[in-house]
Protein: Aminotransferase
Amino acid sequence: MLNKPRLLTPGPTPLPEQVRLVMAQDMIHHRKADFKRIMEETQQRLRHLFGTVQPVLPLSCSGTGVMTAAVTNLFVPGEKVIVVDGGKFGERWAKIASGSGLTVVTLSVEWGHAVTPEQLQAALAEHPDTRGVLVQNSETSTGVLHPVRALASVTRALDVLLVVDGISSVGISPCPMDEWGVDCLLTGSQKGLMLPPGLGLIALSERAWKRAETITPPCFYFNLAGERENVRKNQTLFTSPVSLILGLNESLRMFMETGLETVYRKQWALTMLARTGIRRMGLDLLAPDHFTWGLTSVRLPDGVDGARLLEVAAERFGVFMAGGQDHLKGRAIRIGHMGWVDWADLAAGLHAVAESFRVCGGYIGARDYLEQGLQAYHEALDTGYGAL
Amino acid sequence: MLNKPRLLTPGPTPLPEQVRLVMAQDMIHHRKADFKRIMEETQQRLRHLFGTVQPVLPLSCSGTGVMTAAVTNLFVPGEKVIVVDGGKFGERWAKIASGSGLTVVTLSVEWGHAVTPEQLQAALAEHPDTRGVLVQNSETSTGVLHPVRALASVTRALDVLLVVDGISSVGISPCPMDEWGVDCLLTGSQKGLMLPPGLGLIALSERAWKRAETITPPCFYFNLAGERENVRKNQTLFTSPVSLILGLNESLRMFMETGLETVYRKQWALTMLARTGIRRMGLDLLAPDHFTWGLTSVRLPDGVDGARLLEVAAERFGVFMAGGQDHLKGRAIRIGHMGWVDWADLAAGLHAVAESFRVCGGYIGARDYLEQGLQAYHEALDTGYGAL
Structure:
């Protein structure tokens, strides 16, 4: 009872009480009128969120499931795709694509850095038979935001589908797919959408649908054309994850009530809070230039053990964050500030980082990191978010 | 406020309040100690429920997802399987298997009837190169219980894997897989387990694991060997459906507290209640001999429209049931009595059936169907359940 637990991981995120209460209601049947009405309402809200006139399909699976669905419904074995690999989830694209029999060209980017449209253009020139580009909008393992808008301006002029993993960006930073020319945008429920894990969402552009219509999906469970047919009847192809969809409708209602622009401004401002505070402490940011609006990755100085720091933050301060992955294990921490997290939660997180850092033998630069961070937050809220 | 809504569909089923409240708690992280402790506890309870020493793997998907996982992890394209097809879900096995490139031999059974071990033996004699048999324990579309124990006594003597869809049987009627020699048992969360849809569970026998270890699963998302490796660390391969697993732990706690035998006796007794009441009304049961313990299917006389009957039951009495599927559309109704349903709910359901039947122009035989049904319930509870 000393500390309230605060979940500042880059998903799953804390859940609003009203979403949890909606999901706690007794079961309703997924083939009956009440559920269909909710599906219909949710569909309108999802299209607004995704920035598309196309249906947004709900799938009962984790984020990796919906990534698998995208790859297997848009490409056939032997086709070539370029995978932007700048972290753990870029790697996952490559594993899914090669596991599905595609020819994978890896466009490697240093962890912490974003791919450039020029790099993509060069790779496409070298591989003119490329059928698609698989990229993260936000690479959750590093906190990098890849420039999807600029990448789309390259692919939309070609017969190349741009497939974007928006798992830690949808509902966090804008990615209006029709306006930008994104061919496939997908996400999971447990990040920006303030829901438990277990629901995937995916939308295809018109030209991506044309491609999908020519393909018989190899995995019976992931059939986007079949899902589309059902969504038109406010249904899903197989048993709907009813509770998650009820929760989704409520969380989207909150989004619409607040306004998408305000949500994005908040996310940008939180990012300014985190980055300013961390810099003021004298710590290094893992993603110097192109950064996600939902998490902040911090590189630790030698001699400070990240695993221990996370333990101290959890045990002494009740703050739960994530560590670095692969070669950054123990060398970095990731502070999540997506979903149902506000400035005060994040300020508590920064204080826990600073104090735990000292316990682990680190030395904090300036003591006014909270004041400076919160100042940056308020200024950002007033001035609007950065360019995309 | 005139009627309380009563969900008597064969899944999703009503949810106990304590399960809903557990699921309504704020999010915890799936890679942290608290969640691992719950996974460990759940695993012990699941093994008891499945009657196996093998791990029971939780997957984030619907029932069809876990059926897909079974087929793609146990067989490779070109291999021959026998599918017992006696309803909508037998058909689904066939679609998944042929969609995965297997050679499918269909063992057709009339809707409403169970396959016999002799029929299976004859099919296996005709197709000695068969690698597996895919069957439902309970065929949800008709309410038939296939004799899994007898089928397993055929397959266990051969190099043939018996793969059992226990979606509407696990937690409803016994299917102790190790004792019977079942090679794969799977289920979904929204039936006997008193949870929302979205969680699949699957266990393999030792010899099925030997087979699975030789196969590279074609769909990246469904990798049972990878899941097993993670379950040993009280984790899942991809992001865990956290809320559903918290709920599962609570619903399994209720099972253990009540005792599995008592749960099965209750389910059997409810089935006696439904069947006695329906017969007493003068209506025909769709499954005359081998019947599921979680739902009762009723064939309607000509001139009574099933869709209209369901509407009347919902609107006037607040009772939600399911209709017949395919050629039984409008010609049958299905009364669910699995999961969090008790004798009083089911009695209310029978009364709604009788009254709605009269509204739709039907004629009820005896007026004492409730009394007789409840009598049968109490007698069954006292005498134990039928042979399997």
